[in-house]
Specification:
The chain starts with 8 loop residues before the first strand and ends in a 7-residue tail after the last strand. The longest helix is centred in the middle third of the chain and has 29 residues. β1, α1 and β2 form a beta-alpha-beta unit. The chain is α/β, with parallel strands linked by helices and 242 residues long. It has a single domain, classed as NAD(P)-binding Rossmann-like Domain (Rossmann fold, 3-Layer(aba) Sandwich). The protein contains eight helices and seven strands; from the N terminus they run βαββαβαβααβαααβ. The chain has a seven-stranded parallel β-sheet with strand order 3-2-1-4-5-6-7, sandwiched between helices.
């Protein structure tokens, strides 16, 4: 009789690159059947990594529903949802357009709500589910020039903890991972001075790697994490200590 954990179906939104692709890769390595959504460009290595890539803009209800339907048809009902899809439209508030604000909220927060709502019905029926939101330390501490992004990421905490309370009786856990500065395209866009300032704020004195976020998510998605729900887990090198 095997003691290996069961293979689950996982869906990672925004899984074409960076943190999302790292999460999908690690979940697949843990034995799960994994799908990723992409908005424009699918991950080139999806097939080699054993990932099912489906196109979906999380702000489009019909596209998102179609993506879930494809995953359900090809892999089965989604047991693990990692809501990672997100955008930035940085600017100071006085220069920020209404569209810059609402588009970030619509993608990062409302898109996560939609994906969770679509996934959770089958999780309830199966009496097992893991939902993990990818937030940010910016959602806790704020950041000049990112009022829209910070608001969306802070909103994930309230949304996640509310869902955790609503669905705990059905054995569905909901947790929030809050990355600090991670080696991604977003961080690479900073200039040298901004990069140095950020490093000075991190007690561990280095930038995090996408695989380190993926490791935290993979644990929270595991059987062993069944007694953890409604938590916010900073993976930030100590940045959120203040």
């Amino acid at each position: 009789m095997s003691d290996s954990p069961p293979s689950r179906v996982a869906l990672v939104t925004g899984g074409s690159r960076g943190i999302g692709l790292a999460i999908a890769t690690k979940l697949a390595a843990a034995g799960h059947r994994v799908a990723v959504t992409f908005n424009a460009t699918p991950p080139a290595q999806a097939e080699a990594l054993g990932l099912l890539a489906v196109q979906a803009d999380v702000t489009d209800v019909e596209q998102l529903d179609a993506a879930f339907a494809t995953v359900e048809e090809q892999l089965g009902n989604v047991d693990i949802l990692v809501a990672n899809a997100g955008i930035t439209r940085d600017n100071l508030v006085l220069r920020m357009s209404d569209d810059d604000f609402t588009s970030v909220i619509e993608t990062n927060l409302t898109g996560t709500y939609r994906a969770s709502k679509r996934a959770i019905k089958n999780m309830m029926r199966g009496r097992w589910g893991r939902i993990i939101f990818i937030s940010s330390v910016v959602g806790q501490g704020g950041q000049a020039g990112q009022a829209n992004y910070a608001a969306s990421k802070a909103g994930l905490v309230g949304l996640g903890r509310s869902l955790a309370k609503e669905f705990a009786s059905r054995n569905v856990t909901v947790n929030i991972v809050a990355p600090g500065p991670i080696d991604t395209d977003m961080l690479a866009a900073l200039n040298e001075d901004q990069h140095a300032q950020m490093l000075n704020m991190v007690p561990l004195g280095r930038i995090g790697q996408p695989d380190e976020i993926a490791a935290a998510v993979t644990f929270l998605a595991s059987e062993e994490a069944g007694f953890i729900t409604g938590t916010v887990l900073p993976v930030d090198g100590g940045l959120s200590m203040g």
